[in-house]
Amino acid sequence: MFDRYDVGEQAILVHVDFTDEGEREDLTELKMLVHSAGVDAVDVVTTRRPSPSAKYFIGAGKADEVAALVQATSADLIIFNHALSPSQERNLEQICKCRVIDRTGLILDIFAQRARTHEGKLQVELAQLRHLSTRLIRGWTHLERQKGGIGLRGPGETQLETDRRLLRGRINHILKRLAKVSKQREQGRRARRRVEIPTVSLVGYTNAGKSTLFNRITDAGVYAADQLFATLDPTLRKLDIDDVGPTILADTVGFIRHLPHDLVAAFKATLQETQEAQLLLHVVDVADERLQDNTYQVNLVLDEIDAGEVPVLMVYNKIDLVEDMSPRIERDDDGLPVSVWLSAQQDLGIELLFEALSERLSGTVVEHCLNLPPQLGRVRGVLYGLNCVQQDEYTEQGGWLMTVRMPSADWQRLIKHSPEPIESYICH
């Protein structure tokens, strides 16, 4: 039922270089997408146009050229580096006598190959069904006929209407199951908020090195490869950060320019981790010549999913691929870390990232000298449990003289739950 092809097919790539900057796509990126999908590109057709043609997207002459190329190379697939309308796909298939998919269909197929978890598969199926629902008529004009024969004549729905009804039913079924998954995720987030565990979400352009960095600092063993959309299913792991304590780190799907809206809608539950994070780690590949544009595209998607207001720490990755570049932290005028330069692959600058995370997440760190009496031994145990004791000495009265350092949130929580007013034992 899905608009998918088998891995290993031979394809002709079609790329149009538009004069309008907003319509342009990257040919190198298309080749990387095709490679990620496991497709063999036998030839590339490029052309220049001021705007798309209504009938074929490309001109009629260029469409004939692509058709001749299909015959010459025995290709069984044409992949456009742009979003095509259903009628354009149908017209191209009629003239080229082979299957045609656009950039959106290609990305959906890669996602379908990468999905591993139950939720990920549901999200991909939802995106595919929404994409397919606009293309049901393509190549199936005979389905417009109503059913005929004894007992089946008269008014009734066409085969195409039946298919659309079944499609709507399946989409609604998936939406209900995803709503249940979303509710479970929200319960987990509420539990973390109750104990005030901060969440840090990794975001960035696809293939920027997010999963490699995630594995480096969490030992998670998440699949990482030099290909687009290596990660699809979100992974959460716990970190311990100085002056902050337990922190949740979330690895998310990579972004890409002109990310299909069906995908953004389908992955809403997953991207919620990004929306509700206390800090975003925006991972950037410094060795990529499209660095500035990739960063801009990620910011566009963050705005689209209502995460544009979340604080960001830039992480410039792959510095080992650039000459004369060393690990460092860059700070703003207030001394707050705004970017970290590192290499996750070569394990360079990872300790600087932890230092920057500690400063960005800890907020106000309080330090106190406490003179605890013997009856508050339980409080002393709690302080050790918080891993905040800097110094501890016995007093002549049998108590303890302690120096503690912790985030102000932990201090306020300690005051709230302590059986006695701890502030009265602060040394003055």
TrEMBL record:
Domain Hflx-type G: 198-365
Swiss-Prot/TrEMBL cofactor(s): Mg(2+)
GO molecular function per UniProt: GTP binding; GTPase activity; guanosine tetraphosphate binding; metal ion binding; ribosome binding
Keywords: Cytoplasm, GTP-binding, Magnesium, Metal-binding, Nucleotide-binding
Any one GO CC term of the record: cytoplasm
SUPFAM superfamilies per record: EF-G C-terminal domain-like, P-loop containing nucleoside triphosphate hydrolases
Residues that, per the record, bind Mg(2+): S211, T231
Amino-acid positions noted as binding GTP in the UniProt annotation, renumbered to this chain: 204-211, 229-233, 251-254, 317-320, 343-345
InterPro entries: EFG_III/V, G_HFLX_dom, GTP-bd, GTP-bd_M, GTPase_HflX, GTPase_HflX_N, GTPase_HflX_N_sf, P-loop_NTPase
Task performed by this protein: GTPase that associates with the 50S ribosomal subunit and may have a role during protein synthesis or ribosome biogenesis.
Protein name in UniProt: GTPase HflX
Encoding gene per record: hflX
